[in-house]
Amino acid sequence: MPQEPKSPAVIAFENEKAKTVSEEHNEFQEGLEDTFPASDSVSMSTTVISPGSPAAHPSAASTVPAPLVDQALQTVRIRERQTTFAEDELAALKEELLSLQARVETAGIDLKDKAVNQLQDGVERSRSIIRQRPWQAMAAAGIVGFLFGISR
Q: How is the chain split into domains, by residue range?
């Protein structure tokens, strides 16, 4: 059974999904590589430092960057945007599908009305011809009946 070709909207959605998954994986992998030498992995929790501890007053000579919390937060925000993007894309596809459904229904109704009108016009023309030439119509009906009878 042959598959129907994909619509441009479906193709665009699949391409965007593959691109975002790839970007998300790259950002995640990069974040892991940047935090690899550290003893703890990136965490969303916060640590409370008491004011008297030495950690509360870092030395001015310290050039160690923060443990990439900003990158982790940025990655979380990107994921949230991607989820929103996917939801928006699905909503747009659903709206397009409903629009197509309405147009197909309208086209089907128009086509049915056109066929009924053509059939009624054909019946009227046939009646008109039969009224104008009744003997010829009876002869034609007799010939058709005879041919139908001998073919069975």
A: 8-40+67-151
